[in-house]
Design a protein that fits this description.
It is a single chain. By secondary structure, the chain is of the alpha/beta class. It folds into 2 domains: 282 residues, FAD/NAD(P)-binding domain, CATH 3.50.50; 183 residues, no CATH class. Helix content is 25%, strand content 22%. It has 13 helices and 22 strands. The longest helix is centred in the C-terminal third of the chain and has 20 residues. The chain binds flavin-adenine dinucleotide. The site of flavin-adenine dinucleotide has 40 residues, from helix 1, strand 6, strand 9, helix 8 and helix 13.
Length: 514
């Protein structure tokens, strides 16, 4: 069932068993899991079924730290959320990403990769990713042309990716609207979360519409699924009963904000030239496009005391010295509406496939890094002094990088260079900016537009906002779905893990709901 909240009588009270706030990858996955459950599910979405500039403007904010994307161009504020322009590249986090690593401050999840594996498999269905198999040898068995580069596998691995560009809004709109037990309210922006007097349980959330109407929702359980920055914003802005906001007794909400720094960093020179089909977007035994990136094993990360990262083998070039690393940098500096067009362009790029490489002629490749950003309490999201059109404080983003971030990219290419030489494959040359032993970054630094970590998960309320079940510490019925809960960022894009973690949360809530 679908209702436009703007058409309801003012001050309507909506009631249900579970209230999901936000209908992006996380919120829609959760709603799908609860369809036909016999429970009254309320799905609140701030936007409509399409892009509306006045709703998108509610996402306006400012950057006060390191140069960063404009927030309102990267996150989309309507049904389907940011999957309306995402790239669809997916891979699970590695086991090491969940581990407590002595060399990475604030690392360690209270759950393991094994805990998430069954949910990763299920998440594959909703994202339409094909079989849950990321072993590069599976593709090679299918066709020897997809052979991995001959590195020592105890040091350099091939990390596989699948491309599932499912637009959640387009794909699942009809089934959600037709559902008998899921009630979707569009143009229903949640602006405040109200707790009981003891501030240990949520009583209701307040909705404001741009046409001036206000409504309230009461439920047994509330799930915040607004994306990592909006989840933190809503917790911080819900400060009527506690001036620090909700879940923020230890000043953690909004901190540890992470993205994946992405940057052209080195060159791979292969004097003999060789097939690189595994490392381009290809399409074989499943209908899913896939490709491989180079990665270091967990053992080498520990030996070098560095973060996780991957390198994709990109542009074939003829002359290293005239290569402009900025040429390939794609930014979303334009409006949200324009960025939708951009994302379609990206899919075109992704599908361009093997013509991208011509190994018979050119044997120098740009190596493009995707880095796990270290959890850093000084990298954060705060409320600004200015309010949006609904009276909610806008966000300020103070994105910061630490010394270990740049050192990890350098460490990555040192190992890759050693191993390329040892295996007689070729040579790796780092770009000049990387050889400096400092925390300076060149202008062509980009990110994956992956927001993570602002409501981090930890068993100890002094070190995390949510527990291992994504429940906000100290509040008995408030949960967070999405990458806000990630304590560390991994090197893989987040959405597969967002959906897997949401499905795990859904199972937990089903247990509670009987
Ligand atoms: C250009 C681009 C490319 C990307 N490519 C990839 C990729 O290839 N692979 C990958 O894994 N990830 C990618 N991502 C990231 C991916 O889009 C996000 O990880 C994913 O969308 C997060 O899902 P979510 O549900 O947490 O948040 P969102 O998708 O942002 O959804 C949040 C929803 O909540 C709603 N909402 C927000 N505030 C409120 C409120 N107060 N009240 C009610 N509703 C509210 C929003 O309207 C929205 O529908 C990309 C992102 C961008 C910008």
């Amino acid at each position: 069932m679908h209702v436009d909240a703007q058409t309801l009588q003012d001050e309507t009270l909506i009631q249900g068993d579970i209230c999901i706030i936000g209908a992006g990858a996380a919120g829609i996955s959760m709603a799908l899991e609860w369809m036909n459950s016999g429970k009254r599910v309320i799905l609140l979405e701030g936007g409509g079924f399409e892009y509306h500039a006045d709703v998108q403007d509610l996402y306006q904010g400012e950057n006060i730290g390191r140069r960063y994307h404009k927030y309102d161009t990267t996150r989309l504020h309507y049904f389907g959320g940011t999957t309306n322009h995402w790239g669809g590249l997916c891979s699970p986090f590695d086991p090491v990403d969940f581990a407590k690593r002595s060399w990475v401050d604030h690392s360690g999840w209270p759950i393991t990769r094994e805990d998430l594996d069954p949910f990763y498999e299920k998440a594959h269905q909703w994202i339409e990713l094909g079989p849950y198999d990321y072993d590069s040898s599976s593709w090679e068995k299918e066709d020897p042309i997809y052979s991995a580069l001959p590195f020592d596998s105890s040091r350099v691995a091939t990390k596989m990716w699948r491309l599932g560009p499912t637009r959640f809004g387009l794909k699942y709109r009809d089934s959600i609207v037709a559902s008998k037990n899921v009630r979707l309210y569009t143009f229903a922006n949640v602006c405040n979360i109200k707790t009981n007097e003891a501030v240990n349980a949520v009583e209701e959330v307040e909705i404001r519409c741009l046409n001036g109407k206000h409504h309230r929702v009461k439920a047994r359980h509330f799930v915040l699924a607004c994306g990592a920055i909006q989840n933190a914003r809503l917790l911080l802005a819900s400060n009527r009963q506690n001036p620090n906001g909700l879940g923020n007794d230890h000043d953690l909400v909004g901190r540890y904000f992470m993205d994946h720094p992405e940057i052209a960093a080195a060159f791979l020179v292969l004097p003999k030239g060789r097939p690189l089909d595994l490392y381009t977007f290809f399409h074989n035994f499943s209908t899913i496009k896939a490709y491989g990136e180079l990665a270091l094993t967990a053992e080498v990360q520990e030996e070098k005391q560095i973060l996780n990262s991957t390198a994709s083998i990109r542009d074939a070039i003829t002359d290293i010295d005239s290569f402009n690393p900025g040429d390939g940098t794609i930014g979303l500096w334009n409006s949200g509406e324009e960025s939708i067009t951009w994302a379609d362009g990206m899919l075109g790029f992704a599908f361009s496939g093997q013509s991208y490489f011509d190994t018979s002629k050119i044997n120098i490749y740009n190596l493009f890094t995707r880095l796990e950003q270290a959890p850093n309490p000084n990298s954060r999201v705060l409320l600004s002094e200015e309010n949006d059109a609904l009276g909610v404080p806008k966000i300020s983003i103070d994105w910061q990088l630490a010394e270990i971030d740049k050192r990890s990219i350098r460490g990555f290419y040192e190992v890759l260079g050693e191993e390329a030489g040892r295996s007689e494959l070729g040579r790796v040359r780092m770009m000049d900016w990387l050889s400096e032993d400092d925390n300076a970054w060149p202008d062509h630094l980009g990110t994956g537009w992956h927001h993570m970590g602002t409501v981090r998960m930890h068993d100890d309320p002094k070190q995390g906002v949510v527990d291992a079940n994504c429940k906000v510490h100290g509040l008995s019925n408030l949960y967070v779905a999405g990458s806000a809960a990630f304590p560390t960022a991994g090197a893989a894009n987040p959405t597969l893990t967002v959906v897997a973690l949401t499905l795990r949360l859904s199972d937990h809530l089903k247990g509670k709901a009987g």
